[in-house]
Design goal:
The chain is of the alpha/beta class and 490 residues long. It has helices spanning 23-32, 48-57, 75-92, 107-118, 158-163, 180-189, 193-211, 249-262, 270-292, 298-312, 321-327, 333-359, 409-427, 442-452, 473-487, and strands at 11-17, 33-43, 62-67, 98-101, 127-132, 137-141, 148-151, 167-169, 212-215, 223-226, 236-237, 240-244, 318-320, 366-375, 386-394, 397-403, 432-436, 462-465. It folds into 3 domains: 7-153, 3-Layer(aba) Sandwich (Rossmann fold), CATH 3.40.50.10770; 181-327, no CATH class; 342-487, Trna Endonuclease, Chain: A, domain 1, CATH 3.40.1350.10. It contains 15 helices and 18 strands. It has a 7-stranded mixed sheet, sandwiched between helices. Strands 8-14-15-16-17-18 form a 6-stranded mixed sheet, with helices on both faces. The relative contact order is 0.10.
Amino acid sequence: MSTSEFDKYKVDHLFLLIGENPLPNYIAAQILLKEDGTGYLVHSTDTTSKAACLERMLKAVNVKPISLGRHEANSCVIKDKIQTEVKNILKKHPNHIFGLNYTGGTKAMSVHSYRALFEASGVQNPVFSYLDARSLQMFIDSDNDSPKAEAVDIKLSLKEIFDLHDLRWETEPITDPVLPELAMGFAKLHTDKKVVIAWHWWCDNVLKPGTKVLKKKSNKSPEWEWKKEVDSGLHKVNDSFIVSLSPDIAIQKLNEELKKILTQEEGKTLLENLQQENFKKIKGLCDYYNNLWNLDHIQYIEKIGNLLQKYLEASPTELALKKASEKASFEKIKHLCEWLQGNWLEHYMLQQIQEVSKANPELINDTGLSFKVRDKKKQEEKKDKFEFDVAFMKGYQLFALSCTTDASKSLCKSKLFEAYIRAQQLGGQQARVALVCCYEHPKELEDELKVDTEVVKEDPRIIVFGCEHLDNIQKSIKDWIDENNRYYAP
């Protein structure tokens, strides 16, 4: 139902109960208030900031905050606040219509506010409403009749969702995917776990050591940092910054490690050198060989190398990072390196979602990538910073996707759980979340998180896409949206 079709339910005065997520209140005010109506933001001390955000966002309507202080569970205070306001209004406008949307706030606020307005002297047929997160319908209860469920057709942008929480982006989200054809080629190859292993090996053992340095920070473990010259000059060969793409780079690196291990320390025999720390050096070499590389993987480096030759003008044996970053219009070389190490998956997902949107414009009304957010009131507190990889809006419903090329269960589960929490904070119970990863058993991971979050197994609000989905992810995304519609249909 469009907003105009809610005209018969619109009121002059709408009381809104403010909880941790102001989204339902914003929707209610947009569709249930008359043009010159007033919204009353009933909030507690803890939700004062949420009421302030909502007041700022509702520029087109009159707004009046009503504070309950610390008495959000006190029936007498709630009744007195609402009925006093109603009494003052009726003195000037005896025929005005009143309404209450009780989607937000605490349970106590809902119960006592409902009773306060229902029992208020002089109020005729108040309109009570509730925005159902499952069906995305507004339930209308008036005239002592059975509640009516009406679909809500309101489209919000991603920026509006963040603004409702007074959150600002550090940089504008990306709306145009970078190197989409190359990203698609990567995705098709990553349906094979052997490619996942091979490309991670190249990134960890060739690209990273060539562009980063391992630094010790006080008592903390060493961390990789970009080299100072990463954006003004790496290892130069004819004014280009070069990393090897040679398929036999694995053998070269293996030989380098072997030479290090076989180098004798002064005053020690070769055997004594190898025996140190319970043969740690030999164990490290075996792990290096067995876990990170074997000669069968050469073919996969060659396949990715062919893609880089086609789209980044690499040679069969090396990639000139400066030249490649300029061709792809990256501002800095490190941005290309980050793209190669895993950001390509985010750009691939954005491009694929946009393709779904083009084919089904009624399903998706806004898309974006790389949402780096920090509460503007806590700019200096890095712990409050969080990121979304990819997100899109279906009407006013947030769909958030976390992307990783990692194949380890623990990291994938951690990213999915964080994305779920953030999506709920921003989009409320209406929000949906997905993890796109290279884990081999995505359904297993999905089921585990549903148990942890008490989401029933059949509920599609949480989903995991693994290697098997990458080659036809458009269909998977479309099916996910459709499944949400079917599962929550009244």
